[in-house]
Amino acid sequence: MKKFRDNSRDTIDEIHVEDLSLIANKSIDELLRQDHDLLVFRNNNDEAKIETSNVLDLNHLEVKTGNIMGFLGVNATELKIRSRFGTHDEDYLLHYMLQKVFSINVFNLDHSTSKENVFDFLIYMFPHYLRKAIHQGLYKEYQRRDYNDANVKGAIDVNRHIKQNIPFLGRIAYKVREHSFDNDITQLIRHTIELIKTKYHSSTILSSDLDIEQCVNQIIQHTPSYSIRDRRTIINKNRRPFSHPYFTAYKDLHKICLQILRHEGLKYGEEKDKVYGVLFDGAWLWEEYLNTFLKQCDFEHPENKSGGNPVYVFQGNKSVKRYPDFYKENIVLDAKYKKLDLKRPDRDDMHQIITYMYLLRAERGGFVIPTTLRDHDLIREKDLGILEGYGGDVKIWSFPIPHDEVSYAEFSKRMQEREKAFIEKFNKDFDTSP
């Protein structure tokens, strides 16, 4: 298994070149259009769409990675891209952020291969997407049903009627097209649920909270025709990408179900030149992680509301929108998953925060960044200055990533301490309420 950090350069052995060339120098959008089994987690409000980014670039034996993290497999090659801010080979930071963002209660870091890691990631993320889909409504579609009774309400099936109802006993064979919750999509979800139940290390995620239990029960109750013998048939019926103008939340759930069922572990090399994996936009994951505790300070987070609460650029015109990462009252924050120059941030970053502060008439604003500097054991605040014009105090807040921890439990404890310190600092400095 090859391991890389995001936003870095490394070299590979020549034996991996042929496999990685199927992934390299191609945008995520191009890989998705080639019908590879990739699940991509990203910010839907990002103006610089992540689909245009490459997972990695390959020049002879040199590999260059971007902001994408995750696990990939193609043929005999397995690839893991971890966070450059993580200080451990096991990448505690990536695991911790995923655990926080997806509300994962059980997380096993002892697997030796990336394909098992990917399978566990998919299983642990399944409840998140099941909840999201069910909250949009239980999926239903027209199904063709065959009946043989006295309550005729469709087209009479003459051939079947002759076979089944001679001599005539009061029943008529007919067929009808009707809306049903028991369909190929809900059956796919049901088969995924039943498979997860058989996995001793992950079956508890289906009862991790009352909401998930209710979602699971809804699927079970509305799929009475379920039979484990039909699993291969259901998978084949769901080969085409899911698309629906209303049930949009089922798109990712559909894909994650297929990946879990096809594999029972995402078998790399099951199909030649087929790319499998789970990818995360580092910037999106950092932003969503910050939201897990900044929301305690009452910050609005537009992405968390599926595009709600945007900032409008023009008065009386709602067609031009902007989406600050976090804002409330007279404060706006921009999450940056990169190393900022503490003396002179990138001009585009500065233009962005100044724009948000102007539109929101914010008196304070700035960037929240991760840092691995060993002398940064506490939340650090760097003043960039007061803006000319309408004013406004611009700062950089550094969130220190723990180092030298020997276990994931210790790392998690230290991260929780930093989160608490961050909340206390904002509540004190900005007079907010948790």
Strand order of the largest sheet: 1-7-6-11-3
Largest beta sheet, briefly? 5 strands, mixed
The rounded Rg comes to 26 Å
Q: Briefly note the structural class of the backbone.
A: alpha+beta
Order of helices and strands: EEHHEEEEEHHEEHEHHHHEHEEEEHEEEH
Q: What count of structural domains?
A: 3
Work out the strand percent.
15-25%
Q: Give the rounded overall mean pLDDT.
A: 81
Q: Based on DSSP secondary structure assignment, what is the total number of beta strands?
A: 18
How many helices in DSSP terms?
Answer: 12
- Shape estimate: globular
Helix content bin: 25-40%
- The residue ranges in which pLDDT falls below 50 over 5 or more consecutive positions are 106-115, 264-269
How far apart lie the N and C ends?
44 Å
